[in-house]
């Protein structure tokens, strides 16, 4: 596991857990926020599943701002979210801390014995999938002395949870995901089908059964993730993002197609997303897009 890095941010603190079991986890980030007032945060889709364990206030979320602040909000200290293609709205309290993991979709069977497709487009209480063990993990994390110890406890939990998979994904499905990641979502579906030696219709069926998304939807999501991170990097470096250049570099037909994807995945334009999430972006939240291949 790498060194713990703690950026010095006035009201936000993100702590990277280093290379925490990289074969199953893209990123592990500890966070603490102290805000003047509650805010609405958008959880954007990404090519990874999300596991969040909070230490004080629970995560309160919904698929619309009204749902997040209303009676139908999903409230839990332990959240497991599947691949999704629309933003999740989180009613963020003034004080919150916890750990967020980005879990590789292909690793979910090895960790928890279920395919990623079972969690598609929804978030659940992690105990419903992971059992009582995750609640004991949560208690131990809350009792730990600091971030370094928390990440060690978490790494141990993940290593202990690794099991022999009774039913591996079809090799064509595994290779299709890796091919999409290598091409950063820009390859054609005909080329993908030819690469894995399946017809496009058959590939779509077996791929969707495993991930809950079609290969085309996964490709769009992967392409969007690279564009989003390119924009975020420019903001962190103090530059004004060039959306036309970003669209070209990430394989979009033109600038308007990039904006269209932001409207779907973020619910707003790139400029408005930057304005709303500027504090998070500057603090370095997120995971590295190049790591989604494994």
Condensed summary:
This protein is of the alpha+beta class and 294 residues long. It has helices at 65-68, 108-112, 127-130, 132-143, 147-161, 171-182, 189-196, 200-211, 215-236, 243-249, 255-265, 270-283, and strands spanning 12-16, 25-34, 39-43, 49-54, 59-62, 74-76, 78-81, 88-92, 95-103, 123-125.
The total of helices stands at 12
Radius of gyration: 19 Å
Rough outline: globular
The unreliable regions are 1-11
CATH class of the largest domain: Mainly Beta
Q: What would you give as the CATH superfamily of the largest domain?
A: Jelly Rolls
Helix and strand pattern = EEEEEHEEEEHEHHHHHHHHHH
The count of β-strands is 10
Strand order of the largest sheet: 1-2-9-4-7-10
Q: Could you say what the CATH topology of the largest domain is called? A: Jelly Rolls
Keywords: DNA-binding, Transcription, Transcription regulation
Organism: Saccharopolyspora halophila
InterPro entries: AraC_XylS_family_regulators, HTH_AraC
Protein name: Helix-turn-helix domain-containing protein
Write the layout of secondary structure elements.
Layout: E1 12-16, E2 25-34, E3 39-43, E4 49-54, E5 59-62, H1 65-68, E6 74-76, E7 78-81, E8 88-92, E9 95-103, H2 108-112, E10 123-125, H3 127-130, H4 132-143, H5 147-161, H6 171-182, H7 189-196, H8 200-211, H9 215-236, H10 243-249, H11 255-265, H12 270-283
Helix pairs in contact: 4-5, 6-7, 6-8, 6-9, 9-11, 9-12
């Amino acid at each position: 596991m790498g060194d713990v890095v703690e950026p010095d941010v006035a009201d936000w603190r993100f702590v990277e857990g280093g290379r925490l079991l990289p074969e199953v986890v893209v990123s592990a980030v500890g966070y603490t926020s102290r805000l003047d007032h509650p805010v609405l945060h958008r959880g954007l889709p990404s090519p990874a599943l999300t596991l969040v364990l909070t230490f004080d206030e629970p995560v309160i979320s919904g698929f619309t701002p009204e749902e997040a602040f209303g009676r139908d909000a999903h409230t839990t200290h332990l959240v497991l979210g599947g691949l999704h293609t629309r933003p999740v709205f989180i009613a963020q309290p003034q004080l919150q801390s916890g750990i967020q993991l980005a879990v590789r979709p292909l690793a979910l069977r090895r960790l928890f014995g279920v395919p990623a497709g079972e969690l598609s487009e929804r978030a659940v209480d992690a105990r419903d999938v992971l059992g009582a063990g995750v609640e004991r993990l949560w208690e131990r994390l809350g009792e730990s002395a600091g971030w370094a110890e928390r990440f060690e406890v978490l790494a141990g939990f993940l290593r202990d949870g690794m099991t022999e998979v009774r039913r591996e994904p079809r090799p064509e499905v595994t290779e299709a995901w890796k091919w999409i990641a290598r091409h950063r979502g820009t390859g054609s579906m005909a080329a993908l089908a030819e690469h894995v030696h399946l017809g496009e219709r058959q590939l779509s069926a077996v791929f969707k059964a495993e991930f809950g998304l079609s290969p085309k939807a996964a490709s769009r999501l992967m392409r969007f993730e690279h564009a989003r991170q390119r924009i975020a990097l420019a903001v962190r470096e103090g530059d004004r993002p060039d959306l036309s250049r970003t669209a070209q570099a990430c394989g979009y037909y033109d600038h308007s197609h990039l904006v269209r994807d932001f409207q779907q995945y973020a619910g707003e334009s790139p400029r408005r997303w930057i304005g709303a999430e500027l504090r998070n972006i500057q603090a370095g939240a997120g995971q590295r897009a190049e790591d989604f291949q494994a």
